[in-house]
Amino acid sequence: MISRISALAAALMLSAAGTAFGQTIYPLDRAEILAGSQFDFKVEFPPVQDASAVSVTINGQDAKSVLTQPADFLPSEDGERSALWIRGATLAKPGKYVVEATVRGAEPVRVTWEVFATPARKAKNVILFIGDGMSVAHRTAARILSKGLKEGRYGGELAIDDMPYMALVSTSGTDSVVTDSANSMSAYTTGHKSCVNALGVYCAHNKNTLDHPKVETIAELVKRRSDMAVGVVTNTEIEDATPAGMVSHTRRRADYNDIVGMFYQVQPDVIMGGGSPNFLPKSTPGSKRTDDKDFLKQFQDAGYSFVTSNTELKAAVQPGHTAKKLLGLFNTGNMDGALDRRLLKKGSVDKFPDQPDLTDQVGAALDILSKRDKGFVLMVESGHIDKYSHVLDWERAIFDTIMLDNAVKLAKDFAAKKNDTLVIVVADHAHPVSIVGTYDDDRKGDTARDKLGVYDEAKFPNYPPADAEGYPTSVEVSRRLAFVFGAFPDHCDTIRPHTEGPNVPAVKGDDGKYIANEKNCSGPQAVRRTGNLPTNQPQDVHAADDVVLTAIGPGAEQFHGRIDNTRVFRYMANALGLAKP
Ligand SMILES: [Zn+2]
């Protein structure tokens, strides 16, 4: 009896963080694994002397014989635990797999995986659009501003809505109810759940952010298994979580310099966004690298056409061009959103006056990728819907929702020609946002609350008719949508668009807590709002609400009802027949 308790105590060793951990198996329980896809198999144990003290079986057989890759047993990993690794493992046979890990004298730990096959390939191409943080209210507001709303009826449909298949997608990760863009994108690109800030890995206990168990991304898969082409297009820094999710494996999404290396390793055929300083050797002024690697040179040596402006982009894909691979870096940071590029000219538009619109980027990407006979996977992100929502700047977020809509229209028109392309539009997570009425300057009273019309007094907004691209020619109107945020720091709400530049709702106070940015507090109806978030939060946060997915094309019929975000990967793999024997 005594020996069993001491063995149990031994088995439940305390990690450096003081959290008790027994055996942990990666991939985690209920993982759905594409037959033939690569993953790192890892089992963490409390420290043991040698491998003879542990056993790991899969469906009753020794794991090493089932996974057929070299096994590596570490008696001491990070000086904290023992670990068994089988890297780059694959399972070809579909079915249920029960994995059991035992330490001598302790209870076994079991997880169950499903390895899935795919039907015959239906789609030649897949285009995955990510409206980062795009919630239902973003869609509704974009439709009001872009299509108009009269007597309760819209003047038209958004391309992102007008699709035959729709599903609700749940986005929580392995560690919390509310995801961030990294682990939610990782679910889309690998089919595996992960934790906040992690990309293409399971979050284990490794100290080094690059040492966690990896899972193969769809970009790696289609290149390895089908010699397909890959495109990664965004208007954020290309190293940011969503684009990085196509190629990266790290526990920390902030590992920008490593992520550039991972882009180089996978070599997507088209790469476009901002974030050029992480491509430059540290000796180059403005570089953010800590080494002398010159990735701009490496990409060009690898045959990439390199462009830095819309003019250069247009030239690179002019009729008769021969570009097969393209790297476009159009800003040192995130690119500017549509409202600034088209109307307000704030942000960094003065420094980068010739940035392409997402439609320019998508047009160029389709031009290059569609020439590949084996087909392609293209990921396109409108990333500022999220970033502008974080700073409570809804007009900018909605202009970038309209921009996404235009890019989706372009892709749908492309797909309609041959009906060989699956087009998916989805958010990676929601924001706590809603439209509760309209702020009307002509209403009596002086306060923001006086100016707010709700129910029958929520008169239709008076944005001017949209231009040819679906954008109202001004947002500075007398009756504006009351687009509200459910989670926010201390701030002043001006109830008006931020025409001086992207909003900065809160600033750090002397005590390190975030307080209202006084710049917003002097306007006519500015109202001081006491935050409802922890005081270390400078911005609005993500929400755990489900998000809407719409789809069209071969394989789109799979999307209906409520699905887990990992299923988006599975349904793309099905459409492309990626588990071919
Ligand atoms: Zn976000």
List the helices and strands and how they pair.
Layout (H helix, E strand, L loop, with lengths): L1 H10 L12 E3 L5 E3 L4 E7 L8 E5 L2 E2 H5 L3 E7 L3 E9 L5 E9 L5 E8 L8 E7 L4 H12 L1 E2 L2 E2 L10 E6 L10 H10 L27 H9 L2 E9 L3 H4 L11 H11 L3 E5 L20 H7 L2 E4 L2 H7 L8 E5 L8 H7 L13 H12 L6 E7 L1 H7 L3 H25 L2 E6 L6 E8 L7 H4 E2 L25 E7 L5 E3 L12 E3 L5 E3 L10 E3 L17 E6 L9 E3 L1 H11 L5
Parallel strand pairs: 2-9, 10-18, 10-19, 13-28, 14-15, 14-18, 15-17, 16-17
Antiparallel strand pairs: 1-3, 3-7, 4-5, 4-8, 6-7, 8-9, 11-12, 13-27, 19-27, 20-21, 20-22, 23-26, 24-25
Helix pairs in contact: 3-13, 4-15, 11-13, 12-13
The site of zinc ion (ZN) has 5 residues, from helix 12.
Mean pLDDT: 95
Instruction: Return the domain count.
Output: 3
Query: Which ligands occur here?
Result: zinc ion
Proportion of beta-strand residues:
15-25%
Measured between the Cα atoms of the first and last residue, the distance is: 51 Å
CATH secondary-structure class of the largest domain? Alpha Beta
Structural class: alpha/beta
Tally of contiguous helical segments: 15
- In CATH, the topology of the largest domain is named Alkaline Phosphatase, subunit A
Biggest pleated sheet: 10 strands, mixed
Multimer state: single chain
Instruction: Identify the overall geometry.
Output: globular
Q: Evaluate the radius of gyration.
A: 25 Å
Strand order of the largest sheet: 16-17-15-14-18-10-19-27-13-28
The CATH architecture name of the largest domain reads 3-Layer(aba) Sandwich
Low-confidence stretches: 7-19
The CATH superfamily of the largest domain is: Alkaline Phosphatase, subunit A
| Number of DSSP strand runs | 28
Helix content: 10-25%
